[in-house]
Sequence to fold (319 residues):
Amino acid sequence: MALLEVDALEVFLGPPGRETRVLRGLSFVLEAGQTLGIVGESGCGKSMTALALMGLLPSPSRVAGRVRFMNSDLLRMGEQERRGLRGRHMAMVFQEPMTALNPVITVGWQIAEMLFIHRGLPREAARAAAVELLERVGIAEPQRRARAYPHELSGGMRQRVMIAMAMACRPELLIADEPTTALDVSVQAQILDLMLELQRDHGTGLLFISHNFGVISEMADRVQVMYAGKVVEEGLTASVLSAPQHPYTAGLLQTLPDLGRRVPVLPVISGQVPDLARLGPGCSFYPRCIRRAANCLAAEPPWQASTADAEGRVACCHV
Ligand SMILES: Nc1ncnc2c1ncn2[C@@H]1O[C@H](COP(=O)(O)OP(=O)(O)OP(=O)(O)O)[C@@H](O)[C@H]1O
Ligand SMILES: [Mg+2]
Fold:
């Protein structure tokens, strides 16, 4: 059985009557121990996907669709039940660790608290385990660092602390939303390697979100390409990279100077991401598409399976 099954997930932000549909029917399956990448430009709905799965959307907001996680129906669960899952069975690593770490609590105790609350470890055992976790994520002098406050650490160290916190209870699912975007390139590489290593050791299912196809190519087994709140292409990362079916995917890949290097992607597909509140009936990529045809404006393109489809390779395009 799959770890996470998302079916037609929609997210509406804003008060009733004035809400915007920012996620327009997202579906995927994540198997235990696998990595699914989600890639797309700024504003396409990557973070809202992560927050919807975690149950941490800003309010007012509303979700529709179905999400099964470890055999329970996430979207129909009460807040208390969800809180029991967060941290213990599903955890998230954010782009900017300062927003997720508490500035007035030592990093050691922030990690220990996860074990104290979720696993019922006594305080001292939790503290000792936190020091071990700091060491595990590659922090030198973990005893001393455990007593530090977040602002006393570098960006890379804070990101390691957040990963230690996220992995403390060995969650089945880890959602990483641009975990290395704020870091410089060499630290980025170390953090990505650390995440891969922890994932392998614990068999964690990883949902890895990035605007950078280069990073996705190193992390993800499968990838979903998102545009304007919708997935436009999905498949094994290697095949999507070598033969993109959707013009948007092709455009994103062209923006990539060198796949082997972890450099930020410059958004050079001409034109802009559409306003989600004013989408017409046709393909939302139409205004920027170099392959556009007359029928693209009439209706949203259907899902097209490409020829070698055993791997579940699909793209949402008429042409
Ligand atoms: N509180 C909010 N109210 C209304 N719309 C919002 C709110 N927060 C975000 N949005 C809109 O939701 C859409 C999806 O945003 P989201 O943060 O998921 O994008 P993203 O893909 O994570 O982008 P980035 O790469 O910049 O992080 C965007 O169009 C954004 O403008
Ligand atoms: Mg985001």
User: Anything to note?
Assistant: Residues 105 and 134 are 15 Å apart (CA to CA). The first strand starts at residue 4 and ends at 13. The mean pLDDT is 91.
